[in-house]
Amino acid sequence: MWMADDLVPITLDDVKEAAERCEAWRIYLHWSAGRYGQIWEDYHINIDEDGSLYCVGDLDFDEKKSHTWKRNSGSIGISLCCAYNAQANNGYDAEYGDYPPTQAQIDMMAMVVATICKYGRINVDNVLTHQEIATIDGYGPGSGDSETRWDLWFLPDSGERDKHGNMVMRGGGAVIRGKARFYLNYV
Questions:
Q1: What is the chain's mean pLDDT, rounded?
Q2: Residue 9 DSSP one-character state
Q3: Mean per-residue pLDDT, 103-113
Q4: Which residues contact 58 (CB under 8 A, 6 or more apart)?
Q5: Domain boundaries, position 76
Q6: Angstrom distance (rounded) from CA 68 to CA 66
Q7: Taking the chain, what is the end-to-end CA distance rounded to the nearest angstrom?
Q8: From CA 35, how far away is CA 55, in angstroms rounded?
Q9: Which comes out higher in pLDDT, residue 93 or 7?
Q10: What pLDDT is attached to residue 186?
Q11: Residue 158's domain is classified under what CATH number?
C-alpha cells in the first residue's frame, strides 16, 4: 500500500494515452475497503476522496493486476479509495463508515470509464462492478461465501433525495455506466 502524498497524481490525458495503447476488453470497478489516501498496487487506477487519480508505477492497462478473482487477464481494475469497515446490510442501506464513496470519486470513476471506453474502444457494457461479477461467479451478496464481494453494490445517484430526505440509492454499476455514457460525449 502507498499513500497519495507519496505519489504524483495522473490526469485524464494520461488515462487517454494509456487507453490508446491497451488491448484490454473489459473493466472491473472496485473500492479498496481502505481509507482515503491509501493507494493499492492491485488496481491500475486508484481514485481518492477528492477525485484525484493515482497509479503505482507506469500506467499500463495491459499489465496484469490482482483486482478481480480469476478475471485479471485482459481487464482493467479501477478502485475508489474508500469503504474501510463498510457493512453491506442488504445493499440499499449499506453503512459506509467514516470513508464513504464521495460524489467526486463516483463522478471521476465515470469520467475515467468514459475515457477508457472511447480511446481504448471498450464497450460500456463490458464495465462491471466487483459486486456484479462476483454475483455472476458465485461469490457475491447472498452467496454465503466467506469472501463475498459487494463493492459498489449500491451508490447514491447525484445526491438525489427521496420524500423523506434520504439519499436515493441505485445499483452502482448502473450509476457508473449511466454517467460514463453521458461523459462519452465530452471526452
A1: 94
A2: P
A3: 97
A4: none
A5: 2-183
A6: 6
A7: 30
A8: 16
A9: 7
A10: 86
A11: 3.40.80.10
Phi-psi category of 64—alpha, beta or left, where left has phi over 0 and alpha has psi -120 to 50?
beta
Q: What is the pLDDT of residue 162?
A: 83
CB atoms within 10 A of CB 131: 25
- List residues bridging with 154 in a β-sheet: 171
Domain count, the chain: 1
pLDDT at 169 over 80: yes
pLDDT over 90 at 166, yes or no: no
Percent helix, strand, coil in the chain (nearest 5)?
30, 20, 50
CB-CB contact of 22 with 58 (8 Å): no
User: Distance (Å, rounded) from C-alpha 130 to C-alpha 172?
Assistant: 10
- Rounded to whole angstroms, how far apart are CA atoms 109 and 186? 14
